[in-house]
């Protein structure tokens, strides 16, 4: 027959990795385990049989949690400082008797310093995980980039990209907002000898000036107020052996431009708060929608950095100069978002013709957002012109194209009918603008009688 468990009670308490302090409803100290002694620096023999309020009064510790647990009958948490200079977290829990009254209070004790260190470690690991998730998102899209090459100039650019990619040189990608500079940066990495190494992207325009140095270079423990006690690697270190894409490089503050130049030249970095230089091996790709030559002349961009970056240059044309790609892009994004939202939406031929004539000031990104919005908000299978957003339909240039499209509808019309429709449209607009037959005749340099006859012919006037 095994011994009664009470014989082993003290040994059982000593198994716990937390400090344990047991007191009764009156505050008398009943049990204390070995870990409690280690965490607080207080000895069992000086505590057992003593009342917690007495110990608090004597300054053995600054707060006793027992009275509050007994009073409320609920678990309580508090911070305690001991006479030995230790700081611990108390978690007090009530133990009830058969009458439902608190009989004992069991207090679990944890070291604040250890908890703080664990919190710092968790925070540091979370930052690393987030950065590697960013890289993983790029890797997952390797074979799913929205690259459509139909335009001759774009074909030549893609061939140039492949030749540049294998050289490991710095690349500068130029082009308007939304033309796909990030997609081409990803392709450069994929075609390079570093394709199996990390690829990181950082947008220089979205990071506050006060944080950009720590993001790029990293920092040592305690380098500044609020810095992690473990320190933090920067993008330069994390992209070692791989590729770092600096998007919106034209927005980089001047002081950081000088530091970036040194990294490009020497491939060396020094964390904030450190005196040690670390060698890195990083391939740099930069992109901007700014005219960097103008920025150099204005003094907002360093000339030496500019010339260092433009070793190999890819200049992407806007979508309006790549009309061959507009319909393929429309079909690509329709397929993408139909799949994502489980829909079967298409554009009518008239909508596609109209969108092919649109200037797309926001380029591919604008088209992607437009099509996503239409797929999300429409429940009809076929999108017609009237379903397009107002900003597009109210565009003056698009209104003129719509009017012309309505007039020149070649389906089942002879040339004479098309010309009559066009003539009617011109006369309607002229009369609305000039308000009288005489002024229309003068503006169009035609006899008044001719204008009057044609207006009656088309039923514009009675």
Automatic annotation (TrEMBL):
The keyword Mitochondrion does not apply. The keyword Signal does not apply. One of its GO terms (biological process) is regulation of DNA-templated transcription. Residues 147-376 form the Sigma-54 factor interaction domain. One of its GO terms (molecular function) is ATP binding. PROSITE patterns: PAS, SIGMA54_INTERACT_1, SIGMA54_INTERACT_2, SIGMA54_INTERACT_4. Residues 5-50 form the PAS domain. Gene3D superfamilies: 1.10.8.60, Homeodomain-like (1.10.10.60), P-loop containing nucleotide triphosphate hydrolases (3.40.50.300), PAS domain (3.30.450.20). Keywords: Aromatic hydrocarbons catabolism, ATP-binding, Nucleotide-binding. Signal peptide: none annotated. InterPro entries: AAA+_ATPase, AAA_lid_NorR, Homeodomain-like_sf, HTH_TyrR, P-loop_NTPase, PAS, PAS-like_dom_sf, PAS_fold. PANTHER family: C4-DICARBOXYLATE TRANSPORT TRANSCRIPTIONAL REGULATORY PROTEIN DCTD, TRANSCRIPTIONAL REGULATORY PROTEIN. This is HTH-type transcriptional regulatory protein TyrR. It comes from Desulforamulus ferrireducens.
């Amino acid at each position: 027959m095994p011994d009664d468990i009470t014989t082993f009670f003290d040994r059982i308490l000593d198994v716990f990795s937390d400090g344990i302090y047991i007191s009764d409803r009156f505050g008398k100290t009943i049990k204390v385990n070995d870990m409690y002694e280690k965490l607080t620096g207080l000895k069992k023999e000086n505590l057992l049989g003593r009342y917690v309020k007495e110990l608090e009064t004597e300054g053995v510790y600054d707060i006793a949690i027992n009275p509050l647990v007994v009073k409320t009958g609920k678990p309580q948490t508090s911070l305690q400082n001991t006479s030995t200079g230790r700081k611990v977290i108390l978690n007090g829990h009530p133990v009830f008797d058969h009458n439902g009254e608190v009989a004992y209070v069991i207090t679990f004790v944890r070291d604040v310093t250890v908890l703080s260190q664990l919190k710092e470690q968790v925070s540091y690991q979370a930052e690393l995980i987030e950065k590697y998730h960013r890289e993983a998102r790029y890797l997952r899209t390797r074979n799913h980039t929205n690259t459509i090459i139909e335009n001759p100039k774009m074909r030549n650019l893609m061939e140039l990209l492949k030749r540049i990619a294998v050289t490991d040189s710095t690349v500068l990608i130029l082009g308007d907002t939304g033309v796909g500079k990030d997609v081409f940066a990803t392709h450069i990495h994929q075609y390079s000898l570093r394709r199996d190494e990390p690829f990181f992207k950082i947008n220089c325009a979205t990071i506050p000036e006060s944080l950009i140095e720590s993001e790029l270079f990293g920092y040592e423990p305690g380098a500044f107020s609020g810095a992690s006690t473990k320190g933090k690697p920067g993008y330069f270190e994390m992209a070692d052996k791989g590729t770092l894409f600096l998007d919106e490089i034209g927005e980089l503050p001047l002081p950081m431009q000088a530091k970036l130049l040194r990294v490009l030249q020497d491939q060396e970095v020094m964390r904030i708060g450190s005196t040690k230089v670390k060698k890195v091996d990083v391939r740099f790709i930069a992109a901007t929608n700014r005219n960097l030559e103008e920025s150099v002349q204005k003094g907002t961009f360093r000339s030496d950095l500019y010339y260092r970056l433009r070793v190999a240059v890819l200049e992407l044309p806007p979508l309006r100069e790549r009309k061959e790609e507009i319909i393929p892009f429309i079909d690509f994004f329709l397929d993408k978002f139909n799949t994502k939202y489980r829909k079967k939406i298409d554009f009518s031929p008239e909508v596609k013709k109209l969108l092919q004539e649109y200037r797309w000031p926001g380029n591919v990104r604008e088209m992607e957002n437009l099509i996503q919005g239409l797929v999300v908000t429409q429940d009809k299978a076929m999108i017609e012109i009237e379903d397009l957003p107002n900003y597009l339909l109210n565009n003056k240039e698009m209104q003129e194209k719509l009017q012309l499209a309505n007039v020149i509808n070649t389906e089942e019309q002879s040339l004479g009918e098309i010309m009559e429709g066009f003539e009617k449209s011109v006369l309607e607009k002229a009369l609305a603008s000039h308000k009288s037959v005489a002024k229309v005749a003068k503006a169009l340099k035609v006899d008044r009688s001719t204008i009057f006859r044609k207006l009656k012919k088309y039923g514009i006037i009675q």
